[in-house]
From TrEMBL:
Pfam families: PAP2 (PF01569). Residues 123-224 form the Phosphatidic acid phosphatase type 2/haloperoxidase domain. It comes from Phocaeicola dorei CL02T12C06. SMART domains: acidPPc. This is Phosphatidic acid phosphatase type 2/haloperoxidase domain-containing protein.
Length: 419
C-alpha cells in the first residue's frame, strides 16, 4: 500500500558512483526497515486492542444491539421477504432449540467432561447471566410495547427466544469452547437458526432478533465477569488458548448476509411514469475460497425487497423483489492477524418476479448484473468472524420498456464461518 521510490540522478566517477550507490542502499534499507516496523506496530496495536478484555466482552453483543436499533425502520421489508417466500411457515422447534446449548453443556458436565468452571462457579455464572438477560428483555418488552408481526400481542421487542438461545450458546462456548472451535460454531449456529425461525414463524421482526441476540451475549459476558470477580481463581481451570491467528492465513469463508439497500437511482417504466424504490432489505448467503492470503473466488445468493414509489410521491402496496446469483473474484489484505480489508468484483444474474402495480402489471424478467464492494472483517475466533460491508450493484431494469440500469448500495454485516 505504501511505495518508496528512490531516484539516483547524476553520473560520477567510478569511485564516487560506488560510494553513492552504497549510501543509497543503506538509506533504502533503513526506510524499508522503518516501513516494516511501522506496519508491525500498527498491526500489533490493532491486535492488542482486539484482544483486550473489554473488547472481547462487547465486540459481538454491542454491534448486534446497535444493528437491531438501526434496522428497526426497515422491519417491514424483511417481513415482506418472509411473506413472499414462506407465508405459511409454522414450526415450533425454536421453542426447544433455545435451550439446546445449555442442555448439551449440562449433559457434558454430568458426564464428567472437564469444563472451564467448577459446578458452583458455573451455576453462579449462569444464574447471573439468566437474571440479567431476563430482566433486560422483560423490561424492554413491557416498556416498548412493540406489536408482533402476527398482531398477537405487544411484547415483540426484543426476542426472548433469541436472547435465551444466544445466552445458552455463549455459556456453552465459555465452558467447552476449549475442546474445539467447532463447539462455538455449532452453538451459535443453533442460536442463529432459533432467531431465523422466530422471524419465519411471524413472531418477531428482524430488529427484535438482532437486539435479543446482542442482549443474550452481553448478559452472559457480564454474568461470567461478575462471577470471576467473586471467585477469582477458585474453581476455574485455565486452558491454553487454542485460537491461533496468522496474518497470512487464507481467509476462506461461508457467511449469512444481511444488508440495507440504499437506492442511488430509478428508471422509467415508460415516458409518463418514473419508477423508483425506497430503502429496503437484502438477505442471503455468501462465500469464497482463497487460493492465497490475497485472491480468491466465490459467490453470493441474495433476495432483496424494497418498496415502490411512482412519480416520486405515490407509494405502492406491493413490494419490489429481486433474486440474484453472482460469482467472481474476491480480494483481501490483512491489516493484522485478526483484521482484514476486502473487496470483490462479481457478475451474475438477477430475476424479478411478476409485479402488480395499482394501474398495471409488469411481467417477470431477468438480466445481467455487476457488483463490487468493500469490507472490513474481524476474525473473532479461529473459525468465526464478522464482516461489515458496503456493496455496490448495477442492476437491469424490471420494465422491458426501459433500457436504464439501477444503481444500488447495500450496507450491512455478515456472520462468518472461516474455513
Amino acid at each position: 500500500m505504501k511505495k518508496i521510490v528512490l531516484c539516483i540522478v547524476g553520473i560520477y566517477s567510478f569511485t564516487l558512483l560506488s560510494a553513492r550507490t552504497s549510501a543509497d542502499s543503506l538509506i533504502a534499507e533503513r526506510k524499508d526497515s522503518l516501513r516494516i516496523s511501522a506496519t508491525s506496530n500498527f498491526s500489533g496495536r490493532l491486535d492488542r486492542f482486539s484482544s483486550s478484555h473489554f473488547y472481547q466482552m462487547t465486540y459481538i453483543g454491542v454491534p448486534l444491539v446497535v444493528g437491531g436499533l438501526i434496522v428497526k425502520s426497515e422491519d417491514d421489508h424483511f417481513r415482506s421477504l418472509r411473506n413472499d417466500y414462506m407465508p405459511r411457515f409454522d414450526r415450533h422447534a425454536d421453542d426447544y432449540m433455545q435451550y439446546a446449548p445449555a442442555a448439551i453443556m449440562l449433559g457434558m458436565k454430568v458426564a464428567g467432561v472437564q469444563s472451564r468452571s467448577s459446578w458452583g462457579r458455573m451455576i453462579v455464572s449462569d444464574a447471573f447471566s439468566a437474571i440479567l438477560m431476563g430482566s433486560v428483555v422483560n423490561t424492554l418488552k413491557r416498556t416498548t410495547n412493540v406489536e408482533r408481526p402476527d398482531g398477537s400481542n405487544r411484547h415483540s421487542f426484543p426476542s426472548g427466544h433469541t436472547a435465551t438461545a444466544f445466552m445458552t450458546a455463549t455459556m456453552f462456548n465459555k465452558e467447552y469452547g476449549h475442546k474445539s472451535p467447532w463447539i462455538g460454531v455449532g452453538a451459535y449456529s443453533m442460536a442463529t437458526v432459533t432467531g431465523l425461525m422466530r422471524m419465519a414463524n411471524n413472531k418477531h421482526w428482524l430488529s427484535d432478533v438482532l437486539t435479543g441476540a446482542g442482549i443474550g451475549i452481553l448478559s452472559t459476558e457480564i454474568g461470567y465477569y461478575l462471577a470471576d470477580l467473586i471467585f477469582k481463581e477458585k474453581g476455574i481451570t485455565r486452558f491454553a488458548n487454542e485460537n491461533v491467528f496468522e496474518r497470512l492465513d487464507k481467509p476462506s469463508f461461508v457467511s449469512l448476509y444481511f444488508g440495507l439497500n440504499i437506492p442511488l437511482s430509478g428508471y422509467d417504466i415508460d415516458e409518463q411514469t418514473e419508477f423508483s424504490t425506497s430503502s429496503g432489505s437484502t438477505a442471503g448467503v455468501e462465500g469464497a475460497y482463497f487460493f492465497n492470503p490475497y485472491i480468491g473466488a466465490g459467490g453470493r445468493f441474495a433476495v432483496s425487497n424494497t418498496s415502490i414509489i411512482v412519480n416520486k410521491d405515490r407509494a405502492e402496496n406491493n413490494t419490489f423483489d429481486a433474486v440474484s446469483v453472482s460469482g467472481g473474484s474476491y480480494f483481501s489484505y490483512p491489516l493484522s492477524s485478526r483484521w482484514l480489508l476486502g473487496s470483490k468484483l462479481l457478475g451474475g444474474y438477477v430475476h424479478y418476479p411478476q409485479l402488480k402495480l395499482a394501474d398495471r402489471m409488469i411481467s417477470a424478467r431477468g438480466g445481467f448484473s455487476l457488483g463490487s464492494g468493500v469490507s472490513l472483517t474481524f476474525k473473532a475466533k479461529e473459525h468465526y468472524g464478522i464482516r461489515f460491508f458496503l456493496d455496490y450493484n448495477l442492476l437491469p431494469s424490471h420494465s422491458r420498456n426501459s433500457g436504464e440500469y439501477m444503481n444500488m448500495l447495500t450496507l450491512g454485516a455478515s456472520f462468518m464461518i472461516t474455513l
